[in-house]
Amino acid sequence: MTTVRRRSVRSWAAVGLLAALLAGCGIRSTQVPTDFGPAPSRVPCALSGDISTQTSGGVPVQVFLLCSAQLVTVDRAVTIPAGTEEAARRVLVAQGLLDELAETPSTAERQAGYATDVRGGMTVSGPHPKDPEDALRLSTPPSDLTRFALAQIVCTFADSAAAQDDGSVILGGPATGPLNRYECTPEVRSSPGTESLSSTAVEGT
Question: Which helix (H) or strand (E) is 181 found in, with range?
Fold first, then answer.
């Protein structure tokens, strides 16, 4: 019995010593998980003022890239030959914007968290004979694009000379594919991966 009591006293003494050490370190035991809030973001989505963007002459434009699952504008430039007629100008601007979206972001932009989901090789053309005059047809049907890529294209076009007067964009695929009028809303810009683009069917070829 004496041996058992000694072991019991030693056990309780060890527990007391551990509690004292924890208290001395300022650590209070708890059975409730502690929520310290979300970790601070390491992605600023902002370029420092002394970093030049990919603009090497031409007409200044802005394109929407992805950063922290949002659409964020960056400066670019597209080249339009002098004297180009308005109808052809719209298509050239749209193609230039499409090419810029497909370009790999610069090193500074990648370090800031920028990316693009638009793939290279895509082309854009003007309306077919029975299409609305402001329609644009992509070589890849919009339905085959990822939600991020389509949001990038629509929002970039809507903020440019490729858009209609109301800021909407009529897009379709090649040949006789269906046409839809798309709008870039604030909700899409803030959550392009979850928010669906507002669209309405348009009669075409």
Answer: strand 179-183
Is 47:111 a contact under the CB 8 Å cutoff? Answer: no
Q: How many CB atoms lie within 10 A of CB 102?
A: 17
Helices then strands, counting H and E runs in the chain, come out as 5, 7
Residue 58 scores a pLDDT above 50: yes
DSSP string spanning 26-77? T----SS-----PPPPS------TT---S--SSEEEEEEEEETTEEEEEEEE
Q: What share of the chain is helix, strand, coil (3-state, %, to 5)?
A: 30, 20, 50
Q: Provide, rounded to the nearest whole percent, the portion of the chain with pLDDT above 90.
A: 55
* Of the candidates 104, 103, 110, 118, the residue with the CA atom closest to the CA atom of residue 151: 118
Confidence (pTM) = 0.75
Q: What is the residue whose two structure tokens read 């059975």?
A: 31
Instruction: Name residue, tokens 């209070």.
Output: 28
Listed residue (124, 153, 146, 138) closest to 65, CA to CA: 153
Start-to-end CA span in the chain (Å): 99
